[in-house]
Amino acid sequence: MSEKLWRIYLSGEIHTDWRDEIAKGVEGASLPVSLSAPVTNHSASDDCGVAILGPEPDKGWHDRKGALMNSIRTKTLIEEADIVVVRFGDMYKQWNAAFDAGMAAALGKSLIVMHPPEHAHALKEVCAASSAVVERPDQVVEILRYVIRAELKGY
């Protein structure tokens, strides 16, 4: 019997290596996981619409073209995911991450939220919709190890 391949979508903050940390942890634990994410090249994500569809003199329409194009990937990968992990980092207001968390919750996806302790109040509603709230990538890996293999470190 083959083992289920778990599809994990890693949404949110793009300015640190948290996705790489999760990927290394999943690989180290030999978990049957396929990781996906939004486009994490900030410039490419912002400019994809005008790069492909042509220039846009109005910045609002420039951003809208990119957002619509990016939504194709985001919507598809969240719909296909078994678990959605959303990271809120220290930089910027991550409205897109909050939107992804809301989409995952609306679709009934299992949701893991990751953020620093100082964001707890601002994210209380997002966290209330999740199955787990963590601060570090290694905690995500341990949740995956437990959920997928029923293994708990130290037991």
Q: What oligomeric assembly is this protein in?
A: single chain
Number of helices: 6
- Under the CATH scheme, the architecture of the domain at 6-40 and 82-149 is 3-Layer(aba) Sandwich
The order of strands across the largest sheet is: 2-1-3-4-5
**Overall mean pLDDT:** 95
3D structure, described in words:
With 155 residues, the protein is of the alpha/beta class. It has a domain at 6-40 and 82-149: Response regulator (Rossmann fold). Helix content is 48%, strand content 15%. The chain contains six helices and five strands, in the order βαβααβαβαβα. The protein has helices at 18-28, 42-53, 59-80, 95-106, 124-128, 137-149, and strands at 6-12, 33-36, 83-87, 110-114, 132-134. A five-stranded parallel beta sheet has the order 2-1-3-4-5, sandwiched between helices. InterPro entries: YtoQ_family_protein (IPR019884). This is YtoQ family protein. It holds the Pfam family Nuc_deoxyri_tr3.
Question: Characteristics of this structure?
Answer:
155 residues; alpha/beta; Rossmann fold; 5-stranded parallel sheet; 6 helices; 5 strands; globular
